[in-house]
Specification:
The protein is 38% helix and 20% strand. The chain is of the alpha/beta class. It folds into three domains: 188 residues, Rossmann fold, CATH 3.40.50; 99 residues, Helicase, Ruva Protein, domain 3 (Orthogonal Bundle), CATH 1.10.8.240; 39 residues, no CATH class. The two termini are 20 Å apart. A seven-stranded parallel β-sheet has the order 5-2-1-9-10-13-14, with helices on both faces. A three-stranded antiparallel β-sheet has the order 7-6-8. Strands 3-4 form a two-stranded antiparallel sheet. The protein binds guanosine-5'-diphosphate (GDP) and calcium ion. Guanosine-5'-diphosphate binds next to helix 1 and helix 2. The site of calcium ion has 7 residues, from helix 2. Keywords: Magnesium, Transferase. Pfam families: CofD. This is 2-phospho-L-lactate transferase.
């Protein structure tokens, strides 16, 4: 079996971060087939969820990955700092300043202050992220983990929703407003990825994909997390042409997302909400897509034959990331599926 040293993961927030925890656990424990114990993991994170709030640049997915891997995440909420307090938020609400629906914890605010100051001083987001990781990632993992934003450019996912009071019958809200304030409870009629097609990959992103031995699409949102990363011009081409094996894991189990709003997002772009639907949406590299292999949950076994027919090798294994061991086992299965296959042309 070929030994794999460079692993690149295209990650959203909570789903991606949980997967990364299990992957790193598996690497450290030596339970992943063909993976060097000193393997280096590069995380390319989605930044299309980013927003400006109260003068601060907030990067939810970068921070979720950083806090989770750095041991600072609030485990119950799955996002934000552990031991958080909310005084700043209460004061802002008392002033009645918008957005009142976006929660910023006091500790979290410090991260956004550092980030915003550095951006104001002219540093690109990738360098700012590197600086923040000096606290969260490097003391724990050394060179073992690197976190890159997908782009240094401003990209924002916006969602069009029905609004009978608007002249057009529609209103457009920032993705965070759709998710946090509206709880994704109304249909997403249209998704607009503002700035995406004019963005360029952040330094190191394309090299991390083309120079990897293994590229993993974790069970992150296929539309507003992985979809936006692949949408940065040059990234999809890098994935489809890399010499690395590319494997993905379904975020949809039994026709539903595990948490979040993947169902609403997939419906919005007309993709079938199923493990097979998402696999076929990414597509096999042998037919112009991005995957060499796809994992579906043990409850979605019927998808395997359908995927194989479409030229996408798939296996059905438990995909619930209930703890680090279960997630590491999932990562091992993903690697096993593609490890000794022929690399794509
Ligand atoms: P977000 O940016 O915080 O929304 O997180 P991601 O985009 O990284 O991941 C969200 C996706 O993770 C959702 O579509 C969920 O269905 C998926 N997810 C969360 N927990 C699990 C799990 O235990 N197993 C699987 N297979 N998917 C999960
Ligand atoms: Ca996200």
């Amino acid at each position: 079996m070929t030994v794999m040293r460079n692993i690149t993961v295209l990650s959203g927030g909570v789903g991606g971060a949980r997967f990364l925890e299990g992957l790193l656990h598996g690497i450290a424990a030596g339970t992943l087939p063909g993976i060097d114990p000193d393997a280096e993991v590069t995380v390319v994170a989605n930044t299309a969820d980013d927003l400006w709030a109260h003068g601060l640049k907030v990067c939810p997915d970068l921070d979720t990955v950083m806090y989770t891997l750095g041991g600072g995440i609030d485990l119950e909420r799955g996002w934000g700092h552990a031991d958080e307090t909310w005084s700043v938020m209460e004061e802002l609400r008392a002033y009645g300043v918008e957005p009142t629906w976006f929660n910023l914890g006091d500790r979290d605010v410090a991260t956004h202050l550092v980030r915003t100051q550095m951006l104001d001083a002219g540093y690109p987001l990738s360098e700012v992220t590197h600086a923040l990781c000096r606290r969260w990632l490097y003391p724990r993992y050394g060179a073992g983990v690197r976190l890159l934003p997908m782009t240094d450019d401003r990209v924002e996912t916006h969602v069009a929703i029905a609004d009978p009071d608007a002249p057009s019958g529609r209103r457009v809200v920032h993705f965070q407003e759709y998710w946090v304030r509206l709880r994704a409870a109304v249909p997403a009629e249209l998704l607009v990825f503002v700035g995406l097609e004019d963005s360029t990959p952040a330094p190191g992103v394309v090299d991390a994909i083309t120079g990897a031995d293994l590229v993993i699409l974790p069970p992150s949102n296929p539309v507003v997390s992985v979809g936006t990363i692949l949408g940065v011009p040059g990234v999809r081409d890098a994935v489809s042409s890399t010499r690395a094996r590319v494997v993905g894991i379904s975020p949809i189990i039994g026709g539903h997302h595990v948490r979040g709003m993947a169902e609403q997002m997939l419906t919005s772009i007309g993709v079938e909400v199923s493990a097979a639907g998402v696999g076929l949406h990414y597509g096999a590299r042998s037919s112009g897509g991005v995957l060499d292999g796809w994992l579906v949950d043990a409850d979605d076994t019927e998808a395997v034959a359908r995927l194989a027919e479409a030229g996408l090798p798939a296996i059905a294994v438990p995909l619930w990331m209930s703890d680090r061991d279960a997630t590491a086992a999932m990562a091992a299965a993903a690697i096993g599926l593609v490890a000794d296959g022929e690399p794509a042309p």
